Amino acid sequence: MLSPKQLESLATLVDEKALRTDQESCLNYGRDWTRVHQPNPAAVVLPKSVEEVQAIVRWACAEQVALVPSGGRSGLSAGAVAANGELVLALDRLNEISDFDATDRTVRCGAGVVTAQLQEFAQAEGLFYPVDFASSGSSQIGGNIATNAGGIKVIRYGMTRDWVAGLKVVTGTGELLDLNRGLIKNNAGYDLRHLMIGSEGTLGIIVEATMRLEAEPAERAVMVLGTPDMASIMEVLRAFRDRVRLEAFEFFSEEALAKVVEHQDLTRPFATASHYYALLEFEKPDDVAEASAMECFEHCVDAGWVEDGVISQSLAQASALWRLREDISETISRWTPYKNDISTTVSRVPSLLTEVEGLVSDNYPDFEIIWFGHIGDGNVHLNILKPDAMPMEEFQTRCGSVSQGVFESVARHGGSISAEHGVGLLKKPYLGYSRSDSEINLMAQLKRVFDPAGIMNPGKILDA
């Protein structure tokens, strides 16, 4: 923990209310959405400028104090948890949007800008920021970049990485790097910007980003389709991808739908209950696009891939259909789910899901399984719900055994143990299923280059 002398010297670097040691602040800023590790930070500091971030990092380097960067705290891998007396560096106050350029379609964002804030800014300018997910109202741009967040529109627009035109990062020595500076073409050596994206604060603190925006898409429609099995969902994906311009292609299980309908006061999309559901959003610039979608729907019904379906007729209905998918995480949070965020190539998803589901059901029949995910980009979320009577420690231990088998299956399918949530503390023991020993060794060497004192989010991703 920090000594009174250290707290006194740290307090000189920021304004009066920016340094907090009270229990409520430490609890709030010292954790993310995971609840496996008990937060135990030494203090929380909220800088209001890039210069203050640099000063704090230099102070931490000199004092050998570990730093944990904190954004919207909506992460799901314990990447922003301060459990060992670290100093939490919360970036909430770096929340200005500036330097909008209509020609380049770029805008500069402080790390603390909330995702929805950027989306609303873009909309006001007649443009579009497409990276979107259920936590867009709380997640921050810096955290999105640090974890290379994906979300519901990856099938068309890609990950956060694809929208970062420039990046300012404070390294573990307090040096400020200005990376790429908004350029479209820049082959002058290594692009360190992409090294920082997805590094989870282990190489440096992201303080500012120049983000690309896109033209606003045409009117969109949403369909929810009931399917008998996962193989049918993949046939539906292929059919619709060839006929309409897909913005999103999501899936969820009947078990997930039942929970959402019961606990969120929502209505089933149609009377028929199916094993799985696909949610599609597609661009509808004219009546021809909707007619093509309906023809594709009828084709899928005739082929036996779809059992029933519905298409939105208004923005309100589209929003209601999206809630069936986006409210799942919030709904199941009351069961403290153990989450696995896995991926493989799109073509291998059905076999991976079947193998994993069989593994869990055969070995752990008392666990309730909830499936959902971004099936259009090969990413599925396995959620194991904690039985009410089971102690948390026992649940975590048993789920750890589940993960071992799950990740062995992921490795056999050439996939990833973390599609979009990051590694943090929770996935660190399993990194070897997705990265070779040589890769992990090089990652550790890179960390030592950017963070020679080892103060930047130590223990996350790597033990080194």
TrEMBL record:
SUPFAM superfamilies: FAD-binding/transporter-associated domain-like, FAD-linked oxidases, C-terminal domain
Official protein name in the record: FAD-binding oxidoreductase
One Pfam short name: FAD_binding_4
Source organism of the structure: Congregibacter brevis
Family label: Belongs to the FAD-binding oxidoreductase/transferase type 4 family.
PANTHER family, sorted: D-2-HYDROXYGLUTARATE DEHYDROGENASE, MITOCHONDRIAL
Required cofactor(s): FAD
Alphabetical list of InterPro entries matching this protein: FAD-bd_oxidored_4_C, FAD-bd_PCMH, FAD-bd_PCMH-like_sf, FAD-bd_PCMH_sub1, FAD-bd_PCMH_sub2, FAD-linked_Oxase-like_C, FAD-oxidored/transferase_4, Oxid_FAD_bind_N
Xref: PROSITE patterns: FAD_PCMH
UniProt keyword Nucleotide-binding, yes or no: no
Assigned keywords, A-Z: FAD, Flavoprotein, Oxidoreductase
Source domain of life: Bacteria
Residue ranges occupied by any FAD-binding PCMH-type domain in the UniProt entry: 37-216
